Amino acid sequence: MRTATEFKDYQHWIGLYRKHLDRYPRPKPDKPCTVEAMKSWLNKLEMDEIYEDMHGSLESFIELNPDWPLFAWLGLCLEDVDYGFVK
Question: What's the pTM?
Fold first, then answer.
């Protein structure tokens, strides 16, 4: 599995995390995606009801991106929020 620090957007995602979710402990860079963890973060971002319409199922993301850590996936969600695609 890759770590989130290997992604070129990692520092950008850190900034978005601080902006939108700083009150929560940040996932470790090497924590794998699980449906349960992803649902928890979607709830915090108030994306739990719209994520699948935008991106498909969480299971599909994990299947298509087996080497992606949770924080990299969360970074993509934070981009959706920051760019105004969500609420």
Answer: 0.95
